[in-house]
Amino acid sequence: MGFEAVKLSSLSSSTKSILSRATAKPSLSNLLPLSSLAPRSSHLNRTHFAFRSIKPPPRPVAPAAPCGFGPLSRSKRSFRGGVVGSVRKSEEEWQAVLSPEQFRILRRKGTEYPGTGEYDKFFEEGVYNCAGCGTPLYRSTTKFNSSCGWPAFYEGLPGAINCTPDPDGMRTEITCAACGGHLGHVFKGEGFPTPTDERHCVNSISLKFVRANSYPSQ
Ligand SMILES: [Zn+2]
Question: What does UniProt give as the signal peptide span (predicted)?
Fold first, then answer.
């Protein structure tokens, strides 16, 4: 695959040979192949550069991508309190720290019944963190009343939310970029009078609200 070619050729063959042989007992027979690989190394590097000059290397295989933001969101540290994909737990570990309903929605991509969520009609000032890993996801200033039955936000904190098209192409799932927890879906172009005309339709149970005055004053 092209991506593999880039990865492999990022280290010269000589370097890899040296690395792979670092633990081997030095001997003439171990060292000999290094010089015999030198021509292949330069050939590979030429191929590498030619490949990159034709087209940029493809992105790593990752179905989820940052939602609705510019270059800032591509940074792996573009939001406070979390790094993309930094929170990894086994299913058993998630079950141990989440309630059954949180597990059903965050880890099994479930949906809470409309109009029942804790934050559906809740408009206090603060930040909504991921209920799974605690990463800040939304500011209360981006929350609006969509009357859809679930909390609605017009944008997430930069880089905090990943978007993944559903397999049927009908909707776009939103997940916590740090832990992959399912939040809900994002809809665009519905005509809401918000700066983005996006509606992040989020399950209340996927969120944990923290009041603005809960943070230490700066
Ligand atoms: Zn999370």
Answer: none
